[in-house]
Amino acid sequence: MPANDAHAHAESPALRVQFDTEAQQKDASTLGMWLFLITEVMFFGGMFLVYTVYRNAYPGIFAIASSSLDVYIGAANTVVLLCSSFTMVLAVRAAQLGQRKAIILFLILTLILGGIFLGVKAYEWNEKFQEHHVPGSSFHFEGMQPDEQAHAQLFFSLYFAMTGLHALHMVIGVGMLLFLIRQAQKGRYSAEYMTPVDLGGLYWHFVDIIWIFLFPLLYLIDRHLKG
Amino acid sequence: MSEHIDSVKTYALVFAALIAATVGTTAVAFVDLGPFSVVVALLIAVCKMLLVALFFMHVRHSTRLTRLVVLGGLLWLLILIALTMGDILTRNWVGVPGR
Fold first, then answer.
1. CA nearest to B31 within chain A
2. Which chain B positions have a beta carbon within 8 Å of A34's beta carbon?
3. By the number of CB atoms within 10 A of the CB, which of A13, A111, A142, B27 ranks highest?
4. Same structural domain for residues B4 and B46?
5. Per residue of chain A (227 residues), what is the pLDDT tens digit?
6. Which B positions 9-38 lie with beta carbon below 8 A of chain A?
7. Is B98 part of any domain?
8. What's the distance, Cα to Cα, between the start and end of chain B in Å?
9. Complex-level ipTM beyond the 0.85 threshold
């Protein structure tokens, strides 16, 4: 973008020529990110809707199938993800204060916690393959009639689709964190300009919110039945 | 920037509340509340979402336009779920034996 002499200010990442003030540019960036996140809400919303329809249709089967998931691993992973959100918000705060080393430190911590979450998820999926709880020709859920098997497959289809889509977002988030860490190391972010860190934080917290709903809906259906 | 910078203490308190809510929702899932167990689970999840959105995502410091967009988005999600469920629940399209 060529610098415009009619403008008093020089072109910088903190203030592009099309904006009057830094605050205006920051507000525009934040609004744009939220609009993107709302499209993501609707994207995941469709899956939550399908989940609602079929859980309402087959509540008993969904409860039994849900009880086969390990609730303690799920809860522990939720805590890991919440910890990563905490370190992410501290990275954004460090960026607001212009503390370069702290930004890098907290982003790396967030990256490690995100990696742990994905590792645990991979372990859980592997268990599903061993238990034949993956939808398909070899699907088998212990002690269910053939028609009930089909409904249990629906639960596990939704389980894999929803946690899979969530994990995909986590992988994208990990790529985003690597980029932010690299840029922060180059000294691109300061108290005046830290919009990418801020928006990256919004994305990371959004992915956290999706999991906040996935955990009770997938892992915690009528747990008391199992005793 | 002229924006608000929250204290580490604020974030730590929100984080502690989120962890407590996670432990709480897991524990209460083992209690037989009948049809209300899903209501309680969703209420806790919504509270956690509000904490993350308001504090971690800075919605409480956001401009009115941003808040309007966030609320508008959630409203559309509600329409998606409410209208579809209104249809599904009144027509017996799924969950009927043989279909």
1. A224
2. 66, 69-70, 73
3. A111
4. yes
5. 454 444 455 567 878 889 999 899 999 999 999 999 999 999 999 999 999 999 999 999 999 999 999 999 999 999 999 999 999 999 999 999 999 999 999 999 999 999 999 999 999 999 999 999 999 999 999 989 988 999 999 999 999 999 999 999 999 999 999 999 999 999 999 999 999 999 999 999 999 999 999 999 999 988 877 64
6. 11-12, 15, 18-19, 22-23, 25-26, 29-32, 37-38
7. no
8. 60
9. yes
